[in-house]
Amino acid sequence: MAKRVAVVLAGCGVFDGSEIHEASAVLVHLSREGAQAEVYAPNIPQMHVVDHVKGQPTAEQRNVLVESARIARGNIKDLATLDVKGLDALIIPGGFGVAKNLSTWATQGKNCSVSKEVEAVLRAFHAAHKPIGLCCISPVLAAKIFPGCEVTVGHDTECEQWPYAKTAEAMKELGCRHINSQVTEAHVDARNLLVSTSAFMCNAPIHQVHDGIGSMVREVLRLA
Asked: InterPro entries given for it (predicted)?
């Protein structure tokens, strides 16, 4: 039987939704490993819509589920319908949508709140001892919900290669243990069944990001 993995998206586009290359890499690696991806997204308005050419917010309004359907080629379900019983694992790609639509990390950092639906899904997989894969910024969700967990967003010292390293410091303040790692690596928190990889938190070639996500997917499936 193929393992069934829920993939939760946060829109479509790095600055206001799911990072498209990360979401695609997750789906490609799941397919390569013979797993069945089931894509979900919350049926809510986006925090805002960003013009990805100008990098500036616009007056437009969009829906997270409708936008996520672009990545899923229309084969998507409302997150409210997710039933953990029929699924083997959960993966959440990164992108600013995680910090804007699935939580308020973008505006409140460590003092953020996580969407009730998203928190309920994370807690359900955790309680069922089913693995959770997180990449790029999405490990902040685990840091907020599961105090004492181990995750990685890459490195904790800011430099040209690691421009978002301050995220690691904020996560540590929440009581989580941050593990420094390379972009091609995934870190496994065996106690909490959390698997994380830095992805585009690192200023790295896209194939290395893709390889790191592959490492994360394989570890998730190994634990499932």
From this structure: Class_I_gatase-like
Rounded Cα distance, 58 and 48, in Å: 7
- Catalytic, 149? Answer no
What DSSP character marks residue 41?
A: E
Q: How confident is the model at residue 1 (pLDDT cuts 50, 70, 90)?
A: confident
What is the domain partition of the chain in residue ranges?
4-223
Catalytic residue among 12, 112, 135, 136: 136
pTM here is 0.98
Question: Of 69, 154, 136, 70, whose CA–CA distance to 98 is shortest?
Answer: 136
- Residue carrying structure tokens 């639509």: 101
In whole angstroms, give the CA distance from residue 201 to residue 222. Answer: 24
pLDDT value for 120: 98
Average pLDDT of the residues in 188-206: 98
CA 182 vs CA 56, 189, 208: distances in Å: 31, 16, 9
Which residue has tokens 């893709």?
A: 210
CATH 3.20.20.110 at 4-223, yes or no: no
